Amino acid sequence: MNLKVIRKFPKILEFAELFDSVGWERKIDRIKQNRKHSVLAVSVYDNGKIVGMGRVVGDSCYFTIYDIVVRAEYQGKGIGTLVLNEIISWYKSIKDDDTFLYLGASVGKEGFYEKFGFKSRPNDDVGAGMKWYEEV
Under CATH, what is the fold of the domain 3-114? Predict the structure, then answer.
């Protein structure tokens, strides 16, 4: 592998193709909005081909990690770790007493994030994360 990690949002079609590679779908208009609202994006390339990424959305106080995705054939090779380490390094460079870093782990992936210091909710510090569902 000839990996290159950069702090840059991938090209729109790269983003879409990466998501497609793992069975996720995101419309081009939505990807453009994702880019517009991201305060940081980390992209990983192998010989010029995107193989992983992650991004952060924030308002200068609260930051949330989204879309950590690694091409299936590259999973288990440290790509997600590269992305998360780059995000954490960036966050540490801006962190103060009034900033917070969050994420919502996919089911079964909590252990991966716990290795980096993330803690499941609820805990002694914060309540449970919640999601709104429209009643039908």
Answer: Aminopeptidase (3.40.630)
